[in-house]
Structure formats: structure tokens, C-alpha cells
Amino acid sequence: MEFSGSHRINAPRAVVWAALNDPEVLRRCTPGCEEVVRVSPTEFTARMVLKIGPMKVSFAGNVTLTELDPPASCRIVGEGQGGVAGFAKGSSLVRLDEEGEETVLTYQTEAKVGGKIAQLGARLIDGTVKKLVGEFFTAFATVVAPQAAAEPVAGEA
Amino acid sequence: MFAFAYHRPATLIEAQAALAASEEAKPLAGGQTLIPTLKQRLASPSDLVDLGGIPALRGITVVQDLLVIGAMVRHVEVATSPIVATHLPALAALAGLIGDPAVRNRGTLGGSVANNDPSADYPAACLALDAVIVTDRRELPAGDFFTGLFETALQPGEIVTAVRFPLGGEATYEKFPNPASRYAMAGVFVRRGEGGIRVAVTGASQGGVFRWGAAEAALAAGFSPAALDGLRPEAEEMIADIHGSGAYRAQLVAVMARRAVARLAAAR
Q: Which part of the chain is the FAD-binding PCMH-type domain (chain B) (predicted)?
């Protein structure tokens, strides 16, 4: 599945860029994320718990930042294994545009979920993934500019 | 399966204590979603607290102008209850359409609303009828209780005890079931009464059950299937999966809504 969205963040672009590379910020913003550990400047390992209705599955995986063009854009690539439950992988191309003192963050995401979790939850996966990614960027915008809660500019499927 | 502790409390207080004892404890109602999930190992609670032995969660009664149904009342009981048939026949008909006989013999009203599956039938009835969900802590109107895909206002350990349906007016439910699972591909519950017209849709939206405001407004201006001509929900907001695209579900919602209105209009 593919989808996109954008947020206006009340912080300069350099600050937003730094936050995007901060494992602690990534952990706080990812729904259900328990741990993010930096293993190299652009690689992280992560653990998260995915809850969809009655399902509750732990994923362990890694996150890599590629196509780095600081402080304008990068691609966040992630994949996780949920044991017998299945796997999830995807990437978001994130672009930061300066608008005065503010930054507009735009993302384009593609994601794939497979295995048992996708078979059982086929009618639920798309909506859930979209919601989780939306929650991530909303939380990110809030963490980066805590004084003024960020407003979503637009989100489209 | 994997190891977990099984509890079967006889009172609500014992159930609350068992749920509070562990963060990973889960209440078990009819188990029609939870048990298959456990079998697939897609959840692994430490404790299951079976609510089936608590008499206070059972029973179907009419109190003044309210139909009160206990959380552990099974679908088959609602479908065949003379009380429900007399006072709220649309709800009895809806219960008879849920799943298959095995599901109806085990599945419960409380389990269905607490799970808030986006394709479950009961949430549409609760929302259209402006029902009140009663828990062991508080009472919530359905509009505040259902908060999104598989999400409710329930807090950890909070137990649904009953649902109160206001009586009066006329109601009907039209559903296009998936032929395999009998889950709603689109289900539309229409109620016409003193509080106006309410239209609730299940099975179709990525956000779970919702009130279809545009249809309510159109029907308030003129209660006929023709009033809904050209109306359909946004296809992008509908569930798209192997069973059907968003546009297909949006069209199904429109058709189910027209059928429901036609049936109500004819019954007058």
C-alpha cells in the first residue's frame, strides 16, 4: 500500500532534521515502540508492540536512514519480524521544506505486511498501518515543536 | 495454545480483581474473536478472565422505555427473545444475521461492542439507536464509546456490563454479508423516531462504525429511498481489501441504505 501526508512544524529545518536522526525521538513518536538503539550513524534496531483489536504482537527489527540529503530529505526504511505472526516492512520518503521560521514535513510511505497477521487481518491492515504512520508524524511534529502543537496540513490515501 | 491462567469468577467484583492482578490479563466473553486469535498465537495474555459465570451480566429486560440487555447475552438469545421481538424487532433480526449458528451460540453482545470490529453488526445498532453502553465504572453513549478501528473508550480492566437501547420509533438493518465469514461488507442501520433520523454504517469504513450525516440530512428533508439518490460515502475512506475496493463498498453502503429506507417507508 502507498499513502502520503504532511505536517507543518513550528521549528526551523535544522532542528527538525536533528530530531529525525535522534533515536530517543523516534522511540517516543512510534506507537507501541519500546526501544530504539543506534548501531551506526544511520542504522537503528527497534522493538515495538503492534496492537490490532485482539492481536498483540511484538516486532523486532531495524530502521535505516538512506538517500540522505541533509537537511532537506531522507528515506526511513524499516522492517520487522513478528515471529509466527508475520512480518512488516516499508519505507517513508521524508522531505523538509523551509517556510520562514517553520518547516513543512511531507512523507510518502509504502508498506507491506505479510504472514499470518496479514491473512487474518487482511481487511484491517491498511487502515491500521496508515493510522500508525499518521500517529508517528503527528507525535513527531509535537515533540519537535512542543510549544505549538503542529497542525496536519493534509493527508491523503 | 500456550499456557495461561484461566479464571471463572462468579461475581463482577471477583472479575475486576482478577483483571487488576495482571497487566496482561484479558476478559473472555464469547471468545469468537479472542479464541481464534489465541490459537494463531497472535496474542498471549497471562490470564483469561471468563465472564460467563457472572449472573449479573445476563438477562433481557424492559425498564420503562429502555430495553436492557446484559453484556453476556448471546446473539442467539437476542435473536429468539420474545421481549426483543416485541419491543425492538430490528435488533432481533440483526442478531439473527451475525456470523453462523456456532458464532451466534457463543458470541455475546458485550464481547461484540468491546471488540468494536469495523465489520461487526451490533455497533451499527448501538450508534443508530443512541444506545448507552454500561460498564462497571460508568455509562457512555454509543457515540462516545466507539472511537475508531477496534478502539473504544474502555480503559484497561473496564468491563461492559449491559447495553441500554431506547425504545420507540422504527428501525431496520440492511446488510450485505461476506458470503464466507458473514461479516458485514456493508451494514446500514436506520432509525426514525422522536430524536430524528439516525443512519449508522458498519463494515465499510477504515475508521470503523460511523454515522452517515449526509444521509441523515437528506432523509430528514424527505424520508424516501429517492432522497438518497447520488449519495455515497467517500470511497477513499472505505476499507479496500481482497473482498472489495473502497468504491465497491461505498456503492454497497448506498444500496443498503436505500433498501433499509424502502423497507421502513413500506412498513408504515
A: 1-170
Q: Does B251 touch chain A (CB under 8 A)?
A: no
A32 domain-assigned = yes
Q: Sheet containing B47-50: which strands, arranged edge to edge?
A: B5-7, B47-50, B25-28
Question: Which pTM was predicted?
Answer: 0.86
Is A157 among the domain residues? no
Q: Are strands B47-50 and B5-7 parallel, antiparallel or unpaired?
A: parallel
- The answer to whether B44 faces chain A, any CB pair under 8 Å, is yes
Q: What is the CATH number of the domain that holds A47?
A: 3.30.530.20
Residue A24 lies in domain: 2-151
Q: Which of A124, A125, A128 to mutate to test the interface with B (most CBs of B within 10 A)?
A: A124
DSSP B63-90: ETTEEEEETT-BHHHHHH-HHHHHH-HH
Separation in Å, CA of B260 to nearest CA in chain A: 25
Convert the pLDDT of each residue in B208-261 to its tens digit: 999 999 999 999 999 999 999 999 999 989 988 888 899 999 999 999 999 999
The residues with which A104 forms a beta bridge, in sequence order, are A8, A97
| B34 in A contact zone (CB under 8 Å) | yes
ipTM: 0.72
From the list B149, B237, B242, the residue facing A128 with the nearest CB is: B149
Residues on chain A touching B33 (C-beta within 8 angstroms)? 53-54
CATH number of B170-268: 3.30.390.50
Domain membership flag for residue A112 = yes
Our CA-based measurement puts residue B40 at a distance from the nearest CA of chain A, in whole angstroms, of 8
